[in-house]
Write a structure and sequence with these properties.
Blueprint: H1 27-32, H2 36-59, H3 65-97, H4 103-119, H5 131-141, H6 167-183
Helix pairs in contact: 2-3, 4-6
Domain NADH-ubiquinone oxidoreductase 21kDa subunit N-terminal: 16-101
Transmembrane segments: 39-56, 68-89
Keywords: Membrane, Transmembrane, Transmembrane helix
Length: 184
C-alpha cells in the first residue's frame, strides 16, 4: 500500500491537549464531523440577531413602519446566519486542530480513513491540481479556521498535506485485514 508524499513545507506542530486530526480539513469534512451541539449553538447564534433586533424594536420602537423595518430585519437575519456559520465552523475546526476535546472525531477519522485504505481509495480524495498547486493550497489554508473571524478562508482542495502521519491508517487497515483472514 502506498503512503502519502511528504510536503515541501511541513505544517508547524502545535502542542495541544488533544490529538491533531487534520491541520487543513476540507470544508465538507468540517461539516460532516459537526456535532449536534455545534448545530444547536450555530442555530441559536443565527436566531439571536433577528430576535434581538425585533425585541429592540418592540422595547424602543423606531416608528419607521413595515417598509423600513423589513429590510433591516432581513439584514439582521443575514448577519445572524453568517455568525451561526462562523461559530459552527470554528467549533468543528478546533476539534480537528486538537484545541478542544475530540475523541469522537478521532474515532470517526480513523474509521473513515481505514475504510478508504481497505477500498484502495486516496485518503483525502482525488485532486485535479498538480502536486505543486496542492502544496500551495495547503499552505494557504492550513490552520485557517483560527483566523476565520478576520479572513474567512476555507479549504476546497483535495490534497495530501494535512499534518498527520498517515501510516497509522495503513497499519490499522493491515491489522483489521489480518484479523479478518484469521477469523475466517
Amino acid at each position: 500500500m502506498a503512503t502519502e508524499t511528504k510536503p515541501l513545507v511541513p505544517p508547524k506542530g502545535l502542542k495541544t491537549d488533544y490529538p491533531l486530526i487534520d491541520s487543513d480539513p476540507h470544508l465538507k469534512r468540517v461539516f460532516r464531523y459537526g456535532r449536534p451541539s455545534d448545530y444547536a449553538v450555530a442555530g441559536g447564534m443565527a436566531a439571536a440577531s433577528p430576535i434581538s433586533f425585533w425585541l429592540m424594536d418592540r422595547l424602543s420602537p423606531s416608528h419607521v413602519g413595515r417598509a423600513g423595518f423589513a429590510p433591516v430585519l432581513r439584514l439582521a437575519t443575514a448577519i445572524g446566519l453568517l455568525g451561526g456559520f462562523h461559530i459552527f465552523y470554528q467549533r468543528s475546526s478546533n476539534r480537528f486542530y486538537g484545541f478542544t476535546e475530540n475523541s469522537r472525531e478521532v474515532e470517526k477519522d480513523m474509521r473513515e480513513m481505514v475504510d478508504k485504505v481497505k477500498k484502495g481509495e486516496p485518503l483525502y480524495g482525488v485532486s485535479q491540481l498538480s502536486e505543486n498547486l496542492q502544496g500551495v493550497a495547503a499552505r494557504n489554508s492550513r490552520y485557517s479556521g483560527v483566523f476565520a473571524h478576520i479572513l474567512p478562508w476555507f479549504n476546497f482542495v483535495n490534497h495530501n498535506q494535512h499534518g498527520v502521519d498517515t501510516a497509522k491508517y495503513y497499519q490499522q487497515a493491515e491489522r483489521e485485514l489480518e484479523a479478518e483472514r484469521v477469523g475466517k
